[in-house]
Each structure stands twice: as structure tokens, then as C-alpha cells.
Specification:
405 residues, mainly alpha, Arc Repressor Mutant, subunit A, 20 helices
Amino acid sequence: MHTRQSIIEIFSSFVQFEADRFSSWATDAKLRRSMQRCVNLSPQIDSLQTNSDHFWAVYWYKIWLSQAASVQPTSIAKGHLSAYLQEPCYWEAKKTTASFSSNQYTLSDCFQIAISQIDRVLKNYDVNQGFVLKKYATVIFSSAIRETLRQRHEVDICTPWGLLRKISQKRLIESLQTAGLSSTIIDTYVLAWNCFKTLYIPKQATVTRQLTRPNNQTWEAIAELYNSQTQQPQNPDTLERWLLNSAVAVRNYLYPPLTSINNSSSGQDSVEWIDNIPANEQDSLISEIIAQEEEESRLDQQAEINQVLMSAIDQLEPQAQKIIQFYYGKGLTQQQIAQELEMKQYTVSRRLTKSRESLLQKLAQWGQEKLHISVNSDLLQNTTIVLEEWLQNYYNPPRLPSSLE
């Protein structure tokens, strides 16, 4: 539980970086005023509920949900939720950065990758399933960072020629359009690319991403093929320059520069966001959430889930337990675990998947018996998220440093 003052800060402050390190919390004045008004709306409400960040997360989520389909939705609810999710986003970025051996991607890079998933988190979150928004978001953040870094690494280590061999024509055209090129220039670049793809056939043993520059004979053949299909002949040097430009456009399109979600949109400085939410809607939402809150029952269920999963882990083979501990507790990759345990990486992957499935089965069985919930694909997907967040917190519980308290 928090004080009312700290609740106001949690839903109105954003992480600031300096030289890729946490610097401070920056408070948005409008969000602060908005939160202050909401807290003051109902001083008679039990402080055990209104001093809960989960309570206010559900409150703002329901406002966001009610306005998401409107023609001109206000950004107040999303602003508060974005502020609320700054801390779990920071911790997941820090954890993931530490687990990658390459220092090419900084803490702030990973933070921006994760926080850009806010829309995805809000659209897929289901408050009726009883999940905690912060923990649900943590799973999405972790997945987004790891997948993005993996894909970026693949793109970064590609030579221009390897990248052009891997890209599809549709993605190439999208990249060139995003770069602002005219349709005429795009047509010439695409024709040059097609000639390149036709004549530059790498040797079978060569890894695609490591392809080197075509030799002069190949460039002559590419130019000859290009000139046979156009009335504006070009020399090999021009075609090479066009293809290099295309590769740059593709890289920029696949992974454009990151911009902070903390930046406010233009024209919003003079808007009192909270005024866009009718007072009766605020009151009814607070009443609705309070009516739905059954904190004691939820805590009892959480305790049962903890017991079920801890018992299930104890039933795993010792090696499977060690793999899970290395993966979730130490943040090691599957390759690092394989080296540590002197086994093949595919063996680690298979046993990790099998262990997750075993725990998931125990959790789903508990839901059927205790909550009388029938198992379907949506439930399994949501249960998987619950399991992931539980494993992360069980093996690596977050600790808030003094600079973030």
C-alpha cells in the first residue's frame, strides 16, 4: 500500500535518463493535477483501496477502455497508465540489458522498445481475468525487448547485400516509400533490386547475412539486364549506389529511431485533461471498482497459486529445476545455460518448454477445480501470462533501489 501522495506521483511521473542511466523522475503537471482531483473526489472511501496502485490502474484502464472506440478519445487515461507502467518497464529493460553480452543496445534503448508497447498492453489486457496490469505488462515488455533485439541484431550484422537478398519486394517498396522517394525513383530502385536478386546467387555454403559485394563481372551483368528492361540505361556504379541507398532505407524502415512516449503531443499544453471526463463517470467508475474489489479473496487465491506452482516445481527433475532457475533467476540465455550445464542448446530449449507445460497444466487444473473455469485457447493464453509473471517474480523478485523509491 502507498500513501495518497505517493499514488499521485506513481500515476503522474516518468523516468528520465542521463547518459543511459536513471537520472530522476519527471512529474507531468497536468497528470498530477488530474490525479490530485481524483484522489480528492472521494475522501470517504476506504484508504486501503484508494491507496492501492492496482485500484487506480483498474480505474484508469476502465476510463481508457470506455473512450478507446470514441472518435476523439482523450489522452488522460493513457497518460496515467503510461506513467504507472514506467517502473516495471525500467526494471525489465535493466534486467534484459544485463542478460545480453553485447553493449550495442543501451538501457534507454531497451526502455523505449518496451514502453512503445503501451498500446499493445492496453488492447490485450483483460481486467475481468483478475490479472494485475503491472505484471501483465512486464511479460509483454520482456517479450518485446528480447524479440526486437534479436531481430535488430540479425539486421545489424547483415551486409547491405545480405539484407537485400533477404528482403521481400513488398517490404522494399514500403521502405522506399517511407524514405519519401517518388514513385518513379522507387520503380527504378525496384528494377535494379530485381536484377540484383536474379544474377547475384550466393554459394550454398555462404550465410546470407554475410554476403560480400558482388564482383565486377556480376555488376556488369546486372547493368546489362537492367538496361535491357528500360529506355534509360545506367552504368554499374549507379546501380550499386541505388542498391546501397535501398539497403539504408530498409534498415531505417525496419527499425526507425526511437522516440519517447513521454513527449506530450503538440497543442495539449493548455488542455485540462481531467475536464474531459464527466464527473458522474468518475464517480460511477470508482463505485463500480470498489464494488468489484474483493482483496481478501484475491490474496487467498494468490496464496493458493503460489503453493500449487511451488509444489509443481519441486516435482520437476533436479536438472529441469536448475534450468528454470538459471533462465528466470539469473536471466541467462538458453545458449548460456547450455554452456553452464554442458549440454546442447536444443536440449535446454526442449526441457524448458516441457517444464513450462507441466507447470501450466498444474495451474490450469487448479483453475478448473477451484474456480470452475473451463479450459479454452483464450484461457490457456492468459494462464501462460500468469505463469510467466509468477516465474519471473518467484526467481527474481524486483527490488527498488533508493534512487527509484
